[in-house]
Amino acid sequence: ASSPDEEWPEAEKAEKLARGAALKWASGVFYRPEKLEGLGQYRSRETQRNRSIQSRLKSTVQSYLEGVSTGLEQLRSAAQEVQSVCQDLGAAQWALLDSADCFQGLQQMRVLMAEHVQLASVVQVLPQLFSVHEVFSHTLQLLHGQHLLEAHAELMMMEHLRDNILSQLYLRGLSSAQATVLSYFSGLQELNQSLAKQLWDIVGNSLRLVREDPVVFVTAVRIIEREEKIDDTLLLEATFLPPGRPKGWRQKFYRVLQETITGAHFHTTRTDTEGPGLARHLAALQKDIVSELRVVKDLMVQCVPARYNILSVCTATYHEALTSHLQDILREDLDKQALFLLLEWALHMYHSPEMMGHPDLLPEVDVSALGPLMSPELVDQTERKYVVKVKASVLEWMQRTLEVEFKEWFREEEPETDHQGFFQSALPVIVMQMLNENIQVASLITDSLQQKVYAMALEELEAFLGRLREALVQCGKEHQKDRAVPKYYISYLLAVLNNNLALSSSVSSLHPDMARREVPMSLRAALDRTQKKACQLLLEELLLDLQPLCLHLPSRKWLSGSQLISSMCEVIDKYAKDFSHVRKPVFMLLLTESELLVVSQYLRALMQKKMVCKSEEERGQLCDRLLQDASQLRELFCGLGLERSQQSLEAIFALRELICLKDPALLSLEVLGFITKYPDVSDEHISTLLDLRGDVSREVRHMVLDMMVQHPQVLPESYRPIFSTILVPVPELPFCLRKGKCA
User: Fold this and answer.
1) Which residues of the chain have pLDDT under 50?
2) From which residue to which does the signal peptide run (predicted)?
3) How distant, in Å, are the alpha carbons of 105, 493, 588, 674, 719 from that of 646?
């Protein structure tokens, strides 16, 4: 047996703590002798305390012992009762086993009871079943008489009867009997179809009925609401769904209404896509849609529940139908007028106060949330088609204008002049007006279309200038065949130059942005090429008149008189008078180019090796003639308004200095100064000039040419070439025996 300390370790621990506390207290008492006097009182107090503790312990233990005794008595009683219950359950089990045959009889009783209940249910509905066919006939009569609410009430009653019977059969698992019931109620389908047909006819004519007889339309809506409520109830129960349910007549209502709207306006015969016909079609759509939406807003909204959102549905239907309708129209090959009408109608008219923004429709009708009538991609595609059509039209008009202009060049009268006497024609006005009108018309649609048309206009103007140059070339060829045709060839060339100036000055006004009116480089280059071509033809005409005179230069006859240069001055003056009919920028250009042409022809004639000075006296005559000719020409061009700094005649004066030099040994220095001033001069030119002097030895010639080799020249950027266009005749080979073949 174990000791009490091993069974109760907490008691041992408590005893140790008590002994420790007592020793601590005792050591404190014996440490202070003055406290020993109260030792007797302490002993008596502790003795009394111990007695109290022992008394409480005895009462507590006595209470616990009494509770244990009571519990043991209760357990003994419960055990006896459990034993008695087990005996009773065993007896009940044997009794149930003996009654199994009686339960089989009860099962048969239950089946009979169920059949009795079914028969009772059938007996209850037999009067109603017997009257079904009679109700069918009466309901049809009501439908034919337009008594829709009464007909629908009887229809709902019969459907309810059928559904109750089918539900009971379904719950009892008698699915085989359902087919019989359905065949008995087969007439319901015909009634439903007949009623639905009348309802959808009413919905299809709803826009007319809400104005003329709203009661009929309201009746149809009430029937639809009844059916919708029945559908919702059956779907919530979700135990048995009768045949034909859900009917979904509210959704069918929306579909019929939408089909009516689209069919009335957008599924008719093929739309006339020509300009006037399309305009009438769009105007009719605008009028009808606004009128019908006003009916919906003012009348139909009051005839249907608010949750139908009938105005929003109709607005969305018109919007979607119009979107599809416009796409169908755009698939056709439309002309520019039709494309413009569609863009203007879809982007501006549709949202304007004349249509969807009509005061009678606001604020209830709001198409801003439905998206654009034409998507940005479709708008861009349509704009490009429009630009292509406009481009073809502009091309045709410009070609026709050019043909008229070309014919006018061959008229027997001079071109018309403005108030300042400058030749001109109607060509720039026609062209610019045509382009500007198309750009302004495009601005009525979108900025992007205006930019596209502007870019197209510049391209077509550039192409037109190319065709104009071709026409000038053709006219020049005709003139070369017979200089009398055209009669006023020069005058019309001057008119072309003035027209080109007019185009150049007005083309910047085509730009849609007032702050950005720069002319593209390619178009500016085309204008410059046109101007150069007309100037070239004029200078060629001047050249043809100068060349016969230059054939006599240089010659002994030329040295002896000034008649030749006077004749040249007369020709130049005549052309200058003609040039005065062109505006100043081009007039100065023609004057400058004419002066350069005269100088180059004069120098070219001197380089032809037609003459060699035989004596110093003849060289003196040549120098005098060169001085007189150059001075006379300078005076002429200065009188015409060309300043000395802009003239090239200084080359003749410089060339004269080479010929007038008395000491050939100084030619190297003089030639060096000459080639420095005119870097495009070649050794062939210098050699020809030395030949013209007639007194230059072979050694001096070699020295001059070697000096030129040692001092190559570079052409400055601003230098106007003079000698590079003058070809020096190639000398005949001295070793040729005959012209046919060299030995």
Assistant:
1) 1-2, 4, 733, 735-743
2) none
3) 141, 24, 10, 19, 12
